[in-house]
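User: Can you help me understand a structure? I only have the sequence.
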Amino acid sequence: MRNQKPPFEISNQMIDYVAEIAELVGKLSAVSSLSTNPTLRRSNRIRTIHGSLAIEQNTLSLEQVTAVLNGKHVLAPPKDIAEVKNAYEIYERLDELDPFSMEDLLTAHGIMTRGLVEESGVFRTRPVGVVDSEGHVLHFGTLPQYVPGLVMELLDWAKTSEVHMLIRSCVFHYELELIHPFADGNGRVGRLWHTLLLSKWNPAFAWLPVESIIHDRQQEYYAAINTSNNAGESTVFIEFMLSAIKASLIDAISTSDKMSDGKMDKATLRWNKIQEYLKTHDYIMNADVRDLCGVSAATANRILATFTAERKLVKYFNSGHWVYRSITYGDKD
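Assistant: Let's start by predicting it. Here is the structure, written out as tokens:
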């Protein structure tokens, strides 16, 4: 970081993306039930957490992340489960965070890495080299004695700059990775803060799983960081991130359209969720359907009874409970 703005150029490509994203945000606000539908918001929040942690080699599948957050027992490394719970806690507190506060940044890191790293909620005290998956050093992080001052400068720039927040948030994300202020968790905190800055521009971004789009395009994400590192400025990274934000908006609008025009009616949505759940569980119970679909016990009963009547599920008694599993070839009438 420098006393003036971080180095980047505003390209025509960026201006096009900003215009397209602003238009898509308007369209999303008009068609989406994202702000009012708690089930959809929770599902997107879970995709966000899964995406951000998977980039950092967390082994849990989307179904397992969902199960952990629904209080189910999941067979997985305790560290990976702790990462999911910590990330969910801080994303749930997103609206309490001030995106320009150093104290809030440290608090967020403390929650995100609680019980997982030695230096949690504090800036690192040792030098660090940033390596890729093959062990090649990509760059050396800032020397530890300069970290607090540079982070403070970056937060001040993000607060006072007149550059559009879509571009500003991408610059912040890149520069934070470059400073590498923490011993561990830099990527997770960088992506969280990017979402936080975007949500201050438009609240819909608090619920958009931009992280899951980055996860789908992980090689491009790292390539954009490396190209920007080599160029000594973040232009390429900003263009990549704006394209990822645009993709997440198109994805959200497409989901909303399917729901609103009946291509994906309520029953189909519920059946899809139950099928996904049964891919990783032997059976499903009333309580699981309540969690998955955000419905009452009575509605969950009706849903299960309907799918049983349609011969999609088989009902049987197990350990004192009625449970349901998928119909298999061997099931008789």
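Now, to help you interpret it: The beta strands are 129-131, 137-140, 313-318, 321-326. The mean pLDDT is 90. Let me know which part you'd like to focus on.
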